Amino acid sequence: MRVLSKLAQIDFRFGKIKRNKNLLVVESSPDSKMPSTVYISPQDIVEVLKRMLVSPGAILFVLALPYFLYRWNRSDRSIHQGTRKKREWPTI
């Protein structure tokens, strides 16, 4: 996942996911350049779901996810593993 903000551009890779009382805690992968921890409340989850349900783009993305995943993985296979460059993300 790519996180873009005015402060930084971070490639966040998921590490451990655990529950701490009423929060979902998502830690970054141990090999991340910048260790990060994300705390997600139940209210955050409800808000995301509400916004996704009223967003045509989000609904289309979820419905077409198998196709997008296939296309993403296929573009990776067309390049030899030894010479493959890191996939570039859009920048601000």
Question: Can you give me a brief rundown of this structure?
Answer:
With 92 residues, this protein is of the alpha+beta class. Helices cover 36% and strands 25% of the residues.
Features:
3 helices; three-stranded antiparallel β-sheet; 92 residues; alpha+beta; 25% strand; two-stranded antiparallel sheet; 5 strands; globular
Question: What does this protein structure show overall?
Answer:
The protein has 92 residues and is of the alpha+beta class. The chain has two domains: 1-40, no CATH class; 42-80, no CATH class. The protein contains three helices and five strands; from the N terminus they run βββββααα. The protein has helices at 42-53, 56-63, 65-77; strands spanning 2-4, 9-11, 14-20, 23-28, 37-40. The chain is globular and about 35 Å long.
Report, as a whole number of angstroms, the end-to-end distance. 15 Å
Quick one: overall form?
A: globular
Count of strand segments: 5
H/E element order: EEEEEHHH
Q: Which sequence of strands runs across the widest sheet?
A: 3-4-5
The largest sheet is: 3 strands, antiparallel
Report mean pLDDT, rounded to a whole number.
84
Radius of gyration from the CA trace?
16 Å
